[in-house]
Amino acid sequence: MLKRRVIPTMLYADFGLVKGEGFNSWRRTGSVIQAVKIYNMRNVDELVFFDINATKENREPDYQLIHDVADECFMPFAVGGGIKTVEQIRKVLRAGADKVVLNTAVIEAPSIVREAAEVFGNQCIVVSLDVKLIDGEYRVFTHSGTTETQLTLVEAAKLAESLGAGELLVTSIDLDGTLKGCDLELFRLAVESVDIPVIGGGGVKDYQDMCEAFESTGIDAIASAAMYHFTEQTPNEAKVYLKSQGINVRS
């Protein structure tokens, strides 16, 4: 297995970064550019940036903002939110992103994944699956976690892989922002469903929680935001701890 990655996520809305719980109750957490500068100094493997209102507002990504962030970002940088067409993907990549993250568009127009993978390469395409546990079954939601689909996690994961996605980002809506710990069963099920790398997110509370997720589920990377915004923990310290526990992380 490739080295495990520690990936902060940045959620953008109305001119600044926010963080909430369960994809709701948003709180301001600061400036995008300032956050990127801090992550540059903290040994971050990658950043994932979401414009959380773009899809709900039915607008294109903010290409100038993406360019400004990419200009400050010294690590691989993935962008999601509002991306519906291959031409928009082209513009996001030209603006400086290394990868795009597709969510709602995967369900509404799945052919975009196949076409984008063929044009730009699988390594550029991340499919994000936001899920809730309903009646004992993981169900996939779109539109920033507000719209339930007919797909289970396993069905959506297999669909994404078959269309050419390079990796999955699987997030627990129930645990998002709670700092209550990861849903290990969710991560494990996602990993068992596909042969492409899986990023797990939602509820990450501390370094030990990260370690347990890596050791017991087989995820390739872990995504988190609240633990960096609302505690004294840092991505660099996370990697130092993980390495001390035998997890093969990047230096």
From the structure above, extract its key features.
8-stranded parallel beta barrel; 10 helices; 12 strands; 36% helix; globular
Element layout with pairings:
Blueprint: E1 5-13, E2 16-21, E3 24-30, H1 32-41, E4 47-51, H2 63-72, E5 77-80, H3 86-94, E6 99-102, H4 104-108, H5 111-120, E7 125-134, E8 137-142, E9 147-152, H6 153-163, E10 167-172, H7 184-193, E11 198-201, H8 207-217, E12 221-224, H9 226-229, H10 235-244
Parallel strand pairs: 1-4, 1-12, 4-5, 5-6, 6-7, 7-10, 10-11, 11-12
Antiparallel strand pairs: 1-2, 2-3, 7-8, 8-9
How many DSSP helices? 10
Main sheet attributes: strand count, strand direction, barrel closure: 8 strands, parallel, barrel
Structural class: alpha/beta
Spatially, the strands of the biggest sheet line up as: 1-4-5-6-7-10-11-12
| End-to-end C-alpha gap | 16 Å
Strand fraction: 25-35%
Radius of gyration: 16 Å
Q: How much is the average pLDDT?
A: 92
Shape: globular
Low-confidence stretches: none
Give me the strand/helix succession. Answer: EEEHEHEHEHHEEEHEHEHEHH
Percentage of residues assigned to helices: 25-40%
Count every beta strand, where a strand is a DSSP E run of 2 or more residues: 12
